[in-house]
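One thing: mind reviewing this one?
=====
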Amino acid sequence: MNHTLASDNYAGVHPEIFEALHRANEGHSTSYGDDPYTERAIRKFQEFFGEGIDVYFAYNGTGANVLGLSALTRSFEAIICSDLAHINVDESTAPERFTGCKLLTIPTKDGKIYPWEIEEKIQRIGDQHHPQARVISISQSTEYATVYSPDEIKAISRIAKKHNLFLHMDGARISNAAVGLQQEFRTITRDAGVDVLSFGGTKNGMMFGEAIIFFTPGLARDFKFIRKQGMQLHSKMRFISSQFEALLTNDLWRRNAKHANKMATLLEHEIRKVKKAEVTQPVQANGVFVKLPVEIIPELQEHSFFYVWNEKKSEARLMCSFDTTEDIVRSFGSKLRSLLPD
């Protein structure tokens, strides 16, 4: 398949990650995370987030989200999230099945949820007939590729603490968010009041692997059992850990995300040259959302495949990755202009 704008999951593995995997493949090493690769990767996370954190590795993003939420909840409780949240839209019923919790969704126009909307969902506390709100889950960056500022996250954290709730962050694209905000990881997570973070690697150049990071002491007390029960304990853990060690070394995470974000900004610029194409969201990370005439979509998808995000609005999602080139972006722009001449 040629290069597409469908998803940063479509991209291959960054060469520096492949080199790390090759090095980890030499000889034998202890399994299930009791190895020097995992120890070094955890130290890398401590460099970014500080001491006193608990770090666990999982195989995929759904597993990281679901197990992180499982550690925070009991089955009669509820999780407040955006109606576009990955846990609501793209993880099937895994969150409900494994947590037993009800998802209380908030309609969103920009991917984000706001304190006053969250407050409205926190009701009938103590009422045995009603699901009990326990967690607020936000995505950074959001499914609309918008980002929460540190102050916005702090405001949500204050609501969580006011009502004795936890704040969970789905950080599948947290590197893109940090670059877009020009902030360090800790500023938009631990220091902003996040309790548990799913830290994404797959969408930023890794082959596979995500991390679950607990910032609040005690929350990870039983997590090793939760991870095992959830079938996310990778036996050859070094092949996840070595990737994270490489990603967090020599600014690889930042270089990858910065390039992807830059290509999205260039893509937005190309699209705005076309009067009949409407960019629907501010471009703050590595995604561009655009309304297109229905009749041109099939031919445009043949040129560079992408997904139609909202069929009713004819809104497309275009995602850039660490290996998206300027030529690819400009070629897409040229094709769009040929299909929609002024």
Remarks:
- The longest strand covers residues 132-139.
- The chain has 13 helices and eleven strands.
- The two ends are 31 Å apart (CA to CA).
- The mean pLDDT is 97.
